[in-house]
Amino acid sequence: METLVKKLNFFSLKKAKRLVRAGQLVAFPTETVYGLGASVFNEEAIAKIFVAKGRPQDNPLIAHIADKKDVLLLASSVPPDAKKIIDAFMPGSITVVLPKKPTVPDRATGGLDTVAIRMPASKEARRFIAACGTPIVAPSANTSGRPSPTTAEEVYADMNGKIPLILKGKKCEVGIESTVVDFTGDIPVVLRPGIVTRSEIEAVLGKKIEVLTDTTQKVNSPGVRYKHYAPACPCVLNLDGNKEKIVARYDEIKAEGKNPVIMCLDGLKADFVGLNVFGMGESDKDFAHNLYGALRELEKKYDYIIIVWNADTEFADSVFNRLERVAAHNLL
Ligand code: TXA
Ligand code: MG
Fold it and tell me: Which label site among 41, 71, 108, 142 has the fewest CB atoms less than 10 Å from its CB?
């Protein structure tokens, strides 16, 4: 199959709508990462998503909407806490898990009786969803297990030959996936941390919520079980910025005849003068914005990535959640 990359505009959206309505897949930009979209009500189209990504069948998808009232097309009820969060944060980088309507196919939700719903902040994403005239189920548009794509070029690298159309929009501003919050139990639970933080959610609800921490124990969000975001070369994650330790590891890898690189915030670069260093910007937000693209770039040039992450904000913890997986829990 030939894969077209088209700038997102009036004309490409017409084409995208035709394809989605015919049960094909279309990749599109959002403010978090690029999505691989299909109509939520078309089971055959949804099946193609799992094939194109090589994704385990039991890993449920997020349904994306362009209008808040479409929550009711998908959810059988909206508990009061969920309503407050929808009012406060949608459109935005948050996904709410609610009881699903029987009309939502099992294939979309991995057989669960709940559905994950998100209304992206990205206007480009909402234009695409609105043009299709149906909620769009979309996982990140990467091959399963690879870093999520934040540009149309990165989508193309993984999806070339597998889907007919990639809508090219802006590089994703946030750079990591949405915060996923489950509202189907007594207390809301953050299943996947993101740019919308626990304390922001607690401030709106006026009460404490839970955050899923032990990824091996609870399986509420099947996606957290699988290997994720892995670049092609080994990675190690340092969390204290200890210069001696980092340089010692760098030298060890070098002595093995390999070519390592250090990935860190710009402020730490001065510690590693004369070594291969890749600056990720000034803030935790810059780091997230650059993360997946940097991994895809660095894996081409180097054999070993030493990631230094000692930022100390609530959002930094969300980034840490991804870095742990990038480094396959390999800590320095
Ligand atoms: O930012 C995002 O959320 C991006 C963009 C494209 O919107 N999408 C995304 O989708 O990250 P994906 O498929 O890569 O991750 C979806 C996550 C998985 O961890 C999955 O297990 C969880 O959401 N999820 C989906 N439906 C669920 C449900 N009914 N119950 C619990 N977790 C669910
Ligand atoms: Mg994903």
Answer: 41
